[in-house]
Design brief:
Length: 230
């Protein structure tokens, strides 16, 4: 589905990503893990075309997309929920959701499934995004990405700064999307219990490199101590 091979990225002369590899299969759920500042968000932005890579390959199926514009990812079926949510605070909920329809054409309708997954949003269609709680904004950000009806959904820290009950609800939604709808997921996640609950596979980054990967059941205490514990 998506294969990144030896991706290198620089900020100025600072080498941030070093030969990063990642392979995602259809229907997979992979947690990208690591301490703060190791390059996880940078890597996601490269995958989405929001940051340029100096070298490497990024293939969507048989199509090379590294260096192609970000809007191409949406047309190919890659949804993105950025860190910090980045909803439009002055737009109401419906207007925010309609932003997610841009990649599908002007006449596309908000999918019914969005409101099945997040019924609270249907009750708040006329409420401004900036007036929602942090958890509601995160639900809106995920719903906006799902309006694209993607084949792969990329999420950057979806549980950051959210109350525990909403974290659990978001976990339920991601499990349903992956296990029932067979939507492939790639998420950066710092909360180990959440990652273990939702993820099927893990990839660990350290100092801009991928240093370990495997089935979530293989994420043992030694790897946690070496690469995840602060």
């Amino acid at each position: 589905m998506l294969q990144a091979l030896k991706v290198n990225q620089f900020y100025g002369e600072s080498h941030i990503l070093w030969d990063v590899n990642l392979e995602l299969e259809p229907g997979s759920c992979t947690c990208l893990m690591g301490r703060n500042g190791v390059g996880k968000t940078t890597f996601l932005k490269v995958l989405m075309g929001l940051l340029p890579a100096r070298s490497g390959s990024l293939a969507w199926g048989n199509q090379e997309i590294l260096g192609r514009p970000p809007e191409l990812r949406a047309r190919l079926g890659i949804g993105y929920v950025p860190q910090g949510r980045e909803i439009f605070p002055q737009l109401d909920v419906e207007e925010n959701l309609r932003v997610g329809l841009v990649g599908r054409g002007r006449k596309a309708a908000i999918p019914d499934k969005v409101f099945e997954l997040f019924p609270i949003l249907k009750k708040m269609l006329r409420r401004r995004g900036g007036d929602l709680s942090g958890g509601q904004q995160q639900q809106l950000a995920i719903a906006r990405a799902l309006c694209l009806e993607p084949r792969l959904l990329i999420l950057d820290e979806p549980t950051e700064g959210i109350q525990p009950n909403v974290v659990h609800e978001i976990g339920d939604v991601l499990l349903r999307l992956n296990e029932t709808d067979k939507l492939a997921l790639l998420l950066v996640e710092q909360k180990l219990p959440f990652a273990r609950r939702v993820g099927k596979h893990f990839v660990i980054m350290d100092r801009g490199r991928t240093v370990a990967s495997g089935s979530m059941s293989d994420l043992g205490d030694d790897l946690v101590r070496r690469h995840l514990v602060v």
